[in-house]
Design brief:
Largest sheet: 8 strands, mixed
Radius of gyration: 17 Å
Order of helices and strands: EEEHEEEEEHEEHHEEEEHEEEE
Low-confidence stretches: none
Helix content: 10-25%
Bound molecules: manganese (II) ion
Number of helices: 5
Strand content: 25-35%
Length: 235
Amino acid sequence: MNDIRYLWTPPAIQSLPVRGSDVRLPINRLFFVGRNYHAHAEEMGIPVDKATSRPFYFTKSPHTLVESGSTVAYPPETADYHHEMELVVAIGAPCFRATEADAAAAIYGYACGLDMTRRDLQLVARKTSKPWDLGKDVEQSSVVSEIVPMVGEVIGKGAIELRVNGEVRQKSDIGMLIWDIREVIADLSRFYHLQPGDLIFTGTPEGVGAVVAGDRIEGSVEGVGSIALDIGPAA
Ligand code: MN
């Protein structure tokens, strides 16, 4: 292993602090559930009927990860950079084709997350049947708090909230998820061999909106913790 030589120094492994521990959780992949709260799906103009639809997903590079408490530059090529407050599940055990009953065994813990989004570019992509990457896979757009170890525990309810400059913008409850934690893990594991270090952003409630340079975002999930992000000037 140690005698592999590279042309240049490879990118660092992304990782997050773990509450109550001095070791960090190494990040593998970042998965995101789309439209997983009814009121958010409606504000985006595409209501969800659970009886006739399946959950859908997109991914971001792990190199988009930033830790809570950071200041990030307002990103390029957008005039509509949106906050999306989300509960994040950290996978801690391999999981493939899990039943809903088995899904909990794959959970290592939880975190608060922000799925920051170039909404203008996402909507253009949506309208023109193009991929969402330019809207979603934005540098420094996957913001995550410390990981809270809750091995095998399923969060079924709890307040989720986001404030911008102290004003409440998003307020809902984890109990409002269309596809709950077990269903999301089981469904995603039909498509991927989930691995320790995979993070699943479970979707955002209603109230998404734009931020500008100078704004401070603060969010929380009851029973998990809190997250903060400052938006700096465009770099
Ligand atoms: Mn999202």
